[in-house]
Amino acid sequence: MTPIILQHDNARPHTSCTTEEALRNLKFQPIPHPPYSPDLAPCDFYFFPLLKRDLKGNHYTTDNEVKAAVESWIREKLEEFFSDGMKQLVTRWEKCVSLNGDYVEK
Description:
Radius of gyration: 17 Å
Low-confidence stretches: none
Largest sheet: 2 strands, parallel
Strand content: 5-15%
Mean pLDDT: 83
Structural class: mainly alpha
């Protein structure tokens, strides 16, 4: 069985003894996350920039209109869109680790 690899930041709830024990019991393998590495949040470097690009210039009058537009945008995406984001995470993680946690994009 392929292990589940988990990437999370170093927030206290994520590194508590209870959380670490639960992850071991679930057989998750957390990968190291250099401190102060916002470059490793897929939503920040992949998902949201593309969403903002594609919805730019549209005007919404209600929260429900925004919600419908975002849901429609997500439904239009192929499975590869999401797997590509995860593949980019691996590359960014390797680069971030090699830079000792320094910013990937300067």
